[in-house]
Automatic annotation (TrEMBL):
This is Nuclear cap-binding protein subunit 1. Pfam families: MIF4G, MIF4G_like, MIF4G_like_2. Its main location: nucleus. Residues 31-243 form the MIF4G domain. GO terms for molecular function: mRNA binding; RNA cap binding.
């Protein structure tokens, strides 16, 4: 791989003047070519990896005098951007260090600087990857083993700090443990005594740490058939097994072994002392997790054996697959191809391990790393690329998940429903439904019938009612959703006796005749108020609201667009009718009456009304927890609406927060320029005044108050209905742990987890006002599990 050849490889990709440009290559062209060469090394090639590395090292060595900083910069970027090729790059750095000691030293110095910066700025995953890279450099004779061990000791000493959250010490221990598969053998051979002391310190810490948070993060409440282990406990068990195997593993590619003769002659560098930055209360450390297990070796019918759950190979393969998903999560086709091209695929039941890793991310709590649709589209792509094997593995996984659904977390069941419906829609809704027919006779609130019912409701959103009827066996009739249609009570038989029917017909006719909002309001003006018998002047007229909302939504029932147009045109009428929260709840009741059989339409209309500020978030929360919605309380659409409402409020607060911060930055920059005697540019006319910032802050405080109030309403209502259920069961001598209770208590847990960043801001208020020692322990435990996530 000569330098001349290397710099002409990609010439065909350039334009028609490439021959001319090659003779007058500027620094930019050469830098681009260097980047291409470095980032592509280790990919498929007709030459061996070793010869490619040796050739590339020669090319880079020749270019060091002119492009040293660029080369080091690219290599440092590869450390965090291409960690799946870690040992390829450590070998390359080792070869460069053997040829140019100063270059190796400069690279290590910059990498250490990057590590310190990553720790300081809370870029924890980047820091972990850098530490792993530094560890592997010990194998390449670039770094002295004792200095790496000293760095590990400094990280593990974090466990001895006082008054810090456990997530901080957990993460530093995890960072060290995750690097040991690469460097454990080298440390064992060269520094056995010091290394054993380090491992003992880690073991002492792991034995005493709290694990209250585990319950909240488990996909399944049962350990049958596979234990659901906390991530640090599982990794420690894998490290101990690796230690028992004399630190020998069969998974990591180690190209530097081929260059041992060259590398062992190189001079090594000593790492400077790296002290972890002090704890900052504003730092957000990665949350703990529970390791997802779906398969073991007994589930794989033939071929290579799956590594055991405590084999280090299981961790290494899963870690590599997770990195592939991270690298390609925006391109499903590239991602599927990369997964199926796994380097050691012939030694593994790769399809099973891919499916398990994909589901582990989809079901991760509190939420998946990427959009849920990514996992669905990726699995479809995998089925296309491996049509003879992947669909069978996926079908087997689906059956397993269904069989274990009774102990599955509600959030995960919800994601399972969404994924399965989406998957069916891409395969003509074909499934062996008869195998699940026993669920029809079960209590409809049990997870299996609930799952099938919700899947069919999701399929209805992706298809149409007749298609569902033709696809699913007749025996599933009790679980098949009703055909969606608007219910306009003023047109039904016997509607003449309803108050407001005549006005409803007038309004119907007027809207069809394209009346103005003001004319519609005049038609409603004379309707009597059913609340007028109560003391005082009623704040709203429920009959007016019902006639107007029912009529308007019925006329706009043809499509989402028709409904949106109707809401937009008559927005003025909505605002005049919905001045109080009770009036807004009345609007929501009318929406539910009209569209009770079309859950998606309800979700979309309520979202639209929130966006257009017809209703407020607190009104939606109070309506969902009202007695009218009690029969639907376990239905998934109720929680879809609630989570959408919370997200809308969170986005609103975040937007105002950002505006305040940007305004302060602008004002500060303008004041700094004025102090320095610089003229303010004309483009800076929009520099806010202090009065403007004060008004923005008031607006933000108001929004934060609304956000806090929304969470207080939701959690207070949860406590009320759960306390009522527990008290009733105790009075009647019945078991409180009913299917209804499982859904509701896990929905409470879901609110805490999905919105943990926002809820955590108000943790003291919640602890003092709602989750006190007076409430039932079953409810209090959910709050305690949430608090333990960051403690």
């Amino acid at each position: 791989m000569s330098r001349r050849r290397a710099f002409s490889d990609d010439s065909d990709e350039e334009d028609g003047r490439s021959h001319k440009r090659r003779r007058t290559s500027g620094p930019t062209d050469i830098e681009d070519r260097l980047e291409s060469l470095i980032t592509r090394v280790g990919e498929k090639s007709t030459s061996s990896l070793e010869s490619n590395l040796e050739g590339l090292a020669s090319v880079l060595e020749a270019d060091l005098p002119n492009y040293k900083h660029k080369i080091i910069k690219i290599l440092c970027e590869c450390v965090t951007d291409l960690p799946e090729k870690l040992s390829v790059y450590t070998t390359l750095v080792g070869l460069l260090n053997a040829r140019n000691y100063n270059c190796g030293g400069e690279f290590v110095e910059i990498l250490v600087r990057n590590l310190k910066e990553s720790l300081k700025t809370c870029q924890f995953e980047n820091a972990r990857l850098i530490v792993r890279f530094l560890s592997d450099l010990v194998n390449c004779h670039v770094i002295v083993a004792s200095s790496l061990l000293a760095m590990f000791d400094n990280f593990v000493e974090v466990t001895l700090e006082d008054n810090i959250p456990q997530v901080r010490s957990d993460w530093f221990v995890f960072m060290v443990l995750s690097a040991l598969p690469w460097v454990g053998r080298e440390l064992f051979e060269k520094k056995e005594t010091e290394f054993s002391a380090l491992l003992q310190t880690i073991e002492n810490y792991l034995n005493k740490r709290q694990k209250i948070h585990v319950t909240a993060l488990r996909v399944w409440t049962s350990d049958d058939p596979h234990p659901q282990e906390e991530y640090l406990d599982c990794l420690w068990a894998q490290i101990k097994m690796l230690k028992n195997n004399k630190w020998m593993e069969r998974q990591i590619l180690r190209p530097y072994l081929a260059f041992d003769g060259v590398l062992c002659e190189a001079l090594q560098h000593t790492l400077p002392q790296i002290i972890p930055p002090s704890h900052d209360d504003d730092a957000t450390y990665p949350l703990p997790s529970v390791v997802f297990r779906m398969f073991d070796y007994t589930d794989v019918p033939e071929g290579p054996v799956m590594p055991g759950s405590h084999a280090i190979e299981r961790y290494l393969v899963e870690e590599h697959l997770h990195r592939i998903l991270h690298t390609h999560h925006l391109e499903r086709k590239d991602c599927a191809a990369a997964l199926l091209s796994f380097p050691t695929k012939v030694q593994l039941p790769l399809n099973y391990m891919i499916v398990e890793v994909v589901f582990s991310q989809l079901f991760r709590l509190p939420h998946p790393p990427y959009l849920e649709i990514f996992y669905g589209s990726l699995l479809i792509e995998l089925c296309k690329l491996q049509p003879s094997t992947m669909p069978q593995v996926l079908a087997q996984a689906t059956e397993m998940l269904y069989e274990r659904i009774d102990t599955m977390d509600t959030s995960c069941i919800e994601r399972f429903v969404s994924w399965f419906a989406y998957h069916l829609s891409n395969f003509q809704f074909r499934w062996s439904w008869d195998d699940w027919s026993t669920c029809v006779e079960m209590d409809p609130l049990l997870p299996k019938p609930m799952f099938v019912k919700e899947v069919l409701l999701q399929c209805l959103r992706l298809s149409y009612h007749q298609r569902i009827l033709e696809t699913v066996p007749d025996s599933f009739a009790p679980l098949i959703p009703t055909k969606p249609h608007p219910v306009y009570k003023y047109e039904k038989e016997g509607a003449g006796s309803l108050p407001g029917t005549i006005t409803a017909y007038k309004l119907l006719s007027s809207i069809k005749s394209k009346c103005t909002p003001e004319e519609a309001a005049m038609i409603l003006k004379d309707l009597p108020n059913p609340l007028s018998d109560e003391e005082g002047d009623p704040a709203y007229n429920p009959l007016k609201i019902d006639v107007f909302v029912s009529t308007l939504l019925f006329l706009g029932s043809k499509s989402f667009s028709h409904s949106f147009a109707a809401i937009a045109k008559f927005h003025y009428v909505f605002k005049t009718l919905a001045e109080t929260e009770d009036a807004q709840i009345c609007i929501l009741r009318s929406v539910h009456e009209v569209w009770g059989t079309h859950q998606q339409m309800m979700c979309v209309l309520i979202d639209k009304m929130l966006k257009t500020q017809i209703i407020e978030c607190s009104a939606v929360a109070n309506w969902l927890f009202s007695s009218v919605m009690t029969p639907h309380f376990t239905s998934f659409f109720v929680w879809e609406i609630l989570h959408s409402t919370i997200r809308k409020m969170n986005k609103h607060v975040a937007k105002l927060q950002k505006e305040v911060e940007e305004a302060k930055d602008k004002l500060e920059a303008a004041e700094r320029r004025a102090r320095d005697g610089m003229d303010i540019d004309s483009k800076d006319d929009d520099v806010p005044t202090e009065e403007m910032i004060e008004r923005m802050e008031e607006k933000l405080e108001s929004a934060q108050s609304e956000q806090k109030n929304l969470f207080l309403i939701i959690f207070q209502r949860f406590i009320m209905i759960l306390t009522e259920h527990l008290a009733r069961c105790e009075a009647e001598g019945q078991d409180y742990n009913t299917p209804w209770y499982k859904w509701v208590i896990e929905r409470l847990q879901q609110i805490f987890l999905l919105h943990h960043e926002q809820v955590y801001k108000y943790i003291n208020t919640l602890e003092n006002l709602l989750f006190t020692s007076d409430i039932d322990l079953h409810i209090l435990e959910v709050f305690q599990h949430f608090c333990a996530l960051r403690s």
